[in-house]
Predict the structure.
Amino acid sequence: MFDKFKFDKDDITFTEKAVKYLVNSSNKADGMRDIKTKIKIILSRINTLLLTNEEDCIVNLKYKKLYPYYKTLPVLIPDEHIDTFLDESISSEKSNEPPSHMYI
């Protein structure tokens, strides 16, 4: 999975509490598939945070509030960030500007 995002194994580390939280919050019926899916989502979102600038307002999901924690590698992912990364809802921060890609 790390290869897909061009991460080295030392670039991203989950705390022990984060790993336990992922395991305990996963769907028991899906087992490792559910955990793998969640890790893939987290890696993808960390990659997005690393490759974009907060000022560009590209990220509109709630995990955008994690920009300050994920500016450079290596990163340590605490359990408190897991739900934020996995939350699919839109951020409550409003902008009066149209989406950047709307008028080209």
About this structure: The two ends are 34 Å apart (CA to CA). Strands lie at 12-14, 75-77. The CA atoms of residues 40 and 66 lie 17 Å apart.
